[in-house]
Amino acid sequence: MAEHKTVRDYIRTIVDFPHEGILFRDVTTLFASPRGFRMAIDQLLHPYAGQAIDKVVGLEARGFIIGGAIAHQLSIGFVPIRKKGKLPGTVISEDYQLEYGEAVVELHDDAIEPGERILLVDDLLATGGTAAAGISLIERLGGNIIGCAFIVDLPDLGGRKKIEAMGMDVHALCAFDGL
Q1: Region 64-87: what's the mean pLDDT?
Q2: Mean pLDDT, range 44-61, rounded to an integer
Q3: Cα–Cα distance for residue pair 21/24, rounded to 1 Å
Q4: What is the CATH number of the domain that holds 137?
């Protein structure tokens, strides 16, 4: 087996998933490796060392895995942003555009206190629609987003530019060209 030296080395590409012409960047192989997963969590945290963070917010679903590990490492709380209808309490909602159609994400209306410093995380930044919706939800509750951290950036899809245009700091561990 080849030696893995970077986070990118642990990520496999699945051709034509979920549709023909797509190169799916699969982070489950990264999560399955104790060394790779530890490396990813450490590197995601590195830019925020020494900064006060009150909560980690993760986007459904792989953002839960990353966010839970980061929150544990920092001994702070974790907050999920979920797809519509998955949270049991009172929620606020945000619509966003998908490639074909739209979707809705939700956040408990009491999950973030005004002024709390938030780190938003997910596995992959593509078009930025889900992340932008998450940012909007956090800001509506008065959260102060100190950064948006991703394992993979797909720069050809423009998500990083979209999120940076919202005034956000974006940190990604690696990038892959193409779709």
Answers
A1: 98
A2: 97
A3: 9
A4: 3.40.50.2020
List the catalytic residue out of 3, 35, 38, 99.
Answer: 99
> Does residue 33 fall inside a structural domain?
no
Q: What is the mean pLDDT of residues 160-164?
A: 98
pTM of the predicted model as reported, rounded to 2 decimal places: 0.95
pLDDT of 1 reads 54
Q: Quick one: which of 174, 84, 69 has its CA closest to 121?
A: 69
Is residue 97 pLDDT above 90, yes or no? no
Whole domain around residue 138: which residue ranges?
51-175
Tally of domains in the chain: 1
Of the candidates 62, 94, 106, 160, the residue annotated as catalytic is: 62
Active site includes 164? no
* Known active-site residue 35: no
Query: What is the end-to-end Cα distance of the chain in Å, rounded?
Result: 27
